User: Fold these one by one.
Assistant:
Number 1:
Amino acid sequence: MTKEAFIQNVTEQIRCVRARDGIARELSDHITDQAAAYEEAGEAHEAAVDRAVQEMGDPVEVGVELDRIHRPQIDYKLIGMAFLFHIAGFFIIWLMGDFSNHPQYIARQCVVLLISFGVMAGMYFLDYSFIARYAYGILVFVTISLFISSMVVSWGEGRFVGIMLRYLYVPVFAGILYRLRKGGYRALLWAMGMQIVSAGLAYRVAGTLFTAGNIYVMCTILLVIAVAKGWFLVDKKRAIGVILGVLVILPAALIIMKGIFSGYGFQVQRLLAWLNPERDAGGAGYVYQWLRQEWGMVRLVGAADNSPLLGDSLIGGPFFTEPFILLQLICKYGILAGAALVVAFAAVVVRAFQIAKRQKNQLGFMLSVASFMVILLNCLEGILINTGYFLVSSMQFPFVTYSACTAMTYAALIGLLLSIYRNERIVSEETFRRPTWRLTVKWEKR
Amino acid sequence: MAIDKSLISGSTSMLILRLLEEKDMYGYEMIETLQKKSENVFVLKAGTLYPLLHSLEGKNYLTSYEDEVNGKQRKYYSITKAGRKYLRSRMEEWQEYQTAVVHVLGVMVG
């Protein structure tokens, strides 16, 4: 049997096409090395290769064994959760949205649900490495989508339509980082520039400073992880120092300086209102006072007494109704119902963390960390906002959203996590770590 | 000396992990080193080695990376922290087993 026939026989047993190339290369290298050793011992080239192939064992047995190891795996836990929570979310939106008085929205929400499942399935079956391959193209695509969505008002979501869509900059930034690995200090500087571009675009195209800040923080974390994992082949401590210095301390100093000299009227007012709602009870502090009142009325089980939120519908209600859907649920059905929703969010966050933690594939790891951070941060901020412990801002929870863009963004992130888990055993690649040095001394007879 | 395969098969992963504890190696290098160290007692087939390596990598006991040495691209394997921990437990297990076998054989010979 020839070397090529042996490798073909092995790879034919492996059902996952993407796993084949790496295995074929490794086996081919082995046969070449073995044959070279036999040749060195005095055998003729062809006989040496034949013997090396024979030494490999039965190709079908080897292939079947490798197929067992490299088959795609399905994360039933996350699929189950995603399916269940999407359906539950649909009914929560139904109840909160007062659909009995707005039947035309039922069809709309059904379409949003179906699109979410479609996006999730699409991401699941796609080879996630496309995010690294086309990172810059996707960056442009997300920016254009944001630009278009910021102009769309027909679905009643106004300028908040693209809030979640902006968070797609985070996994895209992870893809950019992957492309820049092994690039040294120049690539590191480029990555820092791209981080500012991502957060800047999120702010400029259709955003609020708050969301841009979130994206900026998450990109910083990804960049520090990439440096710590040795992606840039630079002095890690020095590089992390530079990142923290330039990307954290400098903007912070700029914000403080700007606040001192030209003022941050709106932001400062918001902050003061949060810290002391009584100070401007009729203005910026109103929402925090209202939150306190609502929490004073809620019950463990059942509807709150005289809660103003009970009369509010998600559709046609005040602009902040959607971020407060958790509180609205609690007001309508009690603290236990809200706690169940929080447990659902926590379950997804924990599963996302577990998937990220077990990734050996570098790109898979970085993308799953990006997805995990986006879901975690939004859930955490959402819960804190609903309980009055955080500045009220434009955030949206997963699953319980009226926004098609938000639903699709979360579906894409969950689909991405499923795809990473699915390909975990298939894609095994270099980890960009080189031995610190390797000395080879050769003795040649002349 | 030819050794019954069943005696080796159970401990192959332990032997591979022990080799990688000393330094990172590629597949062919592992077979060579194992053969030399065992004075030709352990002659591992590539068809056994690679599925084992990939399986250990799947369990997070090993990681792999590619490196160019003498103009050739090689896939190196490196033992992880979890791999070292697993190796320690397997070695303790092996020590216990070996002591028990020696005791029994010793008693029988005696």
Number 2:
Amino acid sequence: MKLIKKTIPLAIVFTVGVLTLLSYYVPHKVAVDFVETVSKWENIVMAFAFMLGLISLFRTHYGKITRQVPGWGYSIFVFIGFLAMVVPAIVTKGRTMEAGSITALGWSYRHIYNALAGTMFAVLAFYIVSTAYRSFRIKSAQAFVLFVAAFILILGKVPLGQLIWDKVLGWTGYTVSQVIGWIMAVPAVAGKRGIMIGIAIGAVVTSFKIIFGIEKQYLGRD
Amino acid sequence: MSEPWMIAGAWLATGLTIALFSFLYKDNPFFKIAEHLYLGAGMGWLFQVSVFSVWGPKIWTPISNGDLMVLVPSILGLSLMTQFIPKISWISRYGFTFLMGYGAGLAIPASLATDFMNQIMGTLQPLAGVSSMTPLAIVNSLIVAVGLVCVLFYFFFSVEHQGHFKKVSNIGVYFLMIYFGASFGNTVMARFSLLYGRFDDLYTFSGGNYFYATQIILAGMVVYFIVHELLRKKEASEGEAAQ
């Protein structure tokens, strides 16, 4: 039983991982074809993984409705929202535009999904500002540097900020856009590169641990 | 789509937008309805993308044409569904291990090329052409190189941060702070850009050609909140009187 429950899955990780890794460095048609095929396969397995999540979501909300837990009425809107996108998609075969005109799916996307997604992220603007107020209390030189960088970035991206900069610091000969350009291209790049290199090393090490079966928490319990 | 549909869409978009914004006042049923609709609509959109870009062209069409190789990933994918049956949920490991193996095998060359080698190259390459650079460009390149080394010192945990090591890693923290500040500023402005977009839509839909959707829905919601608050206060006072 250990063979089919543990050994074969770990052998799949090892084989697929090593072959995908080697294919990247082997300039041969077989390697290129392999990567292309495995990439297609990954898309297919991911589509099933998405279905797993979708069914799980539906089970949760269906359970809330049948058990009539407090707030169960809201769960109905999950299904309404889902159908509001899927039914038009079936009718229009997944097309949002047809002959230069918006289809039923395009209508649903624009007036339901886009309106909701845009607003949901826009609401975060208010919370970011309130968080900034609390977190930008300058207690150290490092916090001051963070504040100055953020302040210049925000100031320089609105016309009023550019106007204030020109009035107050115009004598320096540098516009706020030039200063932002310098921050983004020089000191911020040093910080970003340090983080990216750290992430890369971490990703490589974790990937090797997965391929060689050292990291196997994703297998779950027996 | 005909004109009445576009007007109906404007009313729907306005209602949903204002319902989500109402959370800024307090948690309420309008927000919860819009929140659940968003969840369902998001899943619905991804589902139709999955059907029309994967299930159809990558599974159904090849099988119809006799290409049975796609049955292999399909069976691996189906194995994931055993997660719903605890007794045989271990079968899902076959699908998950395929995904993990592919992801790990792909992450190594991708991370090494873009996040590791390219970053080092981008730091060192400008220094190779110092003779043809302006003094300002040389200083900038040196700041990037020195800053990067200092940041890497900060992330090097194998040695205790003391003495000179601590001084160098402290300089690295300043570079990190500048990056975090710049990222924060960019994120704030991106969110505000979305906010302007939503306000722009609300402004557009407040016109006579959309039958004043924004004003009417906003007024309706304000009336609801006032009535709800009055009823709540009345109930509270009646409760106190009963005690």
